[in-house]
Amino acid sequence: MKIGVIDVGGGFRGIYATGVLDYCQDNAIEFDLALAISAGSANLASFLARQRGRNYTFYTEYAFRKQYASLRNFICGKGFFDVDYVYGTLSNSDGENPLDYPALRDNPAEYIVIATDAVTGEATYFDKNSLSQDNYAPLKASSSIPFINKPYFIDGKPYYDGALGNPVPVEKAFELGCDLVVLILTKPADKPREQGFDAKLAKRIRKKYPKAAEQLTLRAQHYNEGVAAAREYAKQGKLAIISPDDTCGVDTLHKDRESLKKLYEKGYADGQKIKEFLREKGLYA
């Protein structure tokens, strides 16, 4: 029985998934496959490295530093989120809060980070072989929101946020052999995604990266289609959707400490649904 988990990210809303995954660690719930997008790549990296609470510190402490996320970063050309600071300066072996790369590497679970090829607009799936000690380029690429950040280059190719290419990779998880899947969303599952600023951001990148811009304009549609597919799998008993009933005022680029803590607590409480899902399948005592 192969069990997968998907963390779709969502900027600062990703703290909800951090709560869910901390609950899993506290209750010895593990997965055989971890599919990660954007902020979800950081959440699942720490989870597989068994560094419980690490991501909570990133959201509630480091995220308030100007080096992490700020208009100053954007003006200086680093992007609103300085991915080199987050996944390099802080996370490297000599950093303030290192990712335990050997533990991540040695965890038997598959770990796949999704980024979007800025030229083709297609999803690219980076596995553990794409990582090495202090080289977390796929996580940086997956977290590069168009226009908010410049594309991140890997081996000469530019990449954007993985949510453009495959925002809710449920079908991918089953293609990779999963029998059961846990899908962690960071906004209410019954709330369709609206295009919002996607079209405006697409205009900013269309001249240089038209395929990525096209995917960005279709992101809401693809997200909603992915959630609809997840609902069908849930009806079949193959998938559990874990999502908050509201986001406590936290959004992709907006946060405050109290709201973040409330959203984390929602995630931790909702983690129990995973235990119940697995217990129904006879996979949790």
Plain-language structure description:
The chain has 285 residues and is α/β, with parallel strands linked by helices. It has 14 helices and eight strands. The protein has helices at residues 15-26, 39-48, 54-60, 71-75, 83-89, 101-106, 137-142, 162-165, 170-175, 198-205, 210-217, 219-235, 257-270, 272-280; strands at 3-7, 33-37, 110-117, 123-126, 152-154, 157-161, 180-184, 239-242. Strands 1, 2, 3, 4, 5, 6, 7 and 8 form an eight-stranded mixed beta sheet that branches.
What order do the helices and strands come in, and which of them pair?
Elements: E1 3-7, H1 15-26, E2 33-37, H2 39-48, H3 54-60, H4 71-75, H5 83-89, H6 101-106, E3 110-117, E4 123-126, H7 137-142, E5 152-154, E6 157-161, H8 162-165, H9 170-175, E7 180-184, H10 198-205, H11 210-217, H12 219-235, E8 239-242, H13 257-270, H14 272-280
Parallel strand pairs: 1-2, 1-7, 2-3, 7-8
Antiparallel strand pairs: 3-4, 3-6, 5-6
Shape: globular
Mean pLDDT: 96
* Helix fraction by DSSP (H/I, runs of at least 4): 40-55%
Report the β-strand fraction as a percent range: 5-15%
**Which series of helices and strands comes N to C?**
EHEHHHHHEEHEEHHEHHHEHH
